[in-house]
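### Sample
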Amino acid sequence: MKFTLAVALVMLVISQGTESASLVKPDFSAEIGKVTKYFEDLGKMLTTTSTELVEKVKAYELTSQAGSLLQTLEKIQQDLTPLAASIEKQLKPLSESVQAQIKPLAHSIEAQVEDLLKKVVTQTKALLPPQ
């Protein structure tokens, strides 16, 4: 009987301990707060990272477009260099011809202006009172 009473007492203690353990609810609010903060920080980090990535992609696109434009300009320069040489070659005789025609005219005008200047000086001296 003592054995039965001891077993009953142990069973009562175990059942009371189990019930009291199940009645006490653990406090998960602190853990939930930590997990919530972690996910908020993760979201902010993803937003920042995606913004930086978009800016890098835009910069890469601009660099790529600039490189493409530079290649196009170099090609145009290569295409225009022979054309410029050809035009210069064609205009050189014309320039020499025009220069040959203008040179005598320029000398004639220069002589006429010198004569006119001499006349003006002579007439100006004639107008001055004798000294």
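The mean pLDDT is 81. This sample (Type-4 ice-structuring protein LS-12) is used throughout the tutorial notebook.
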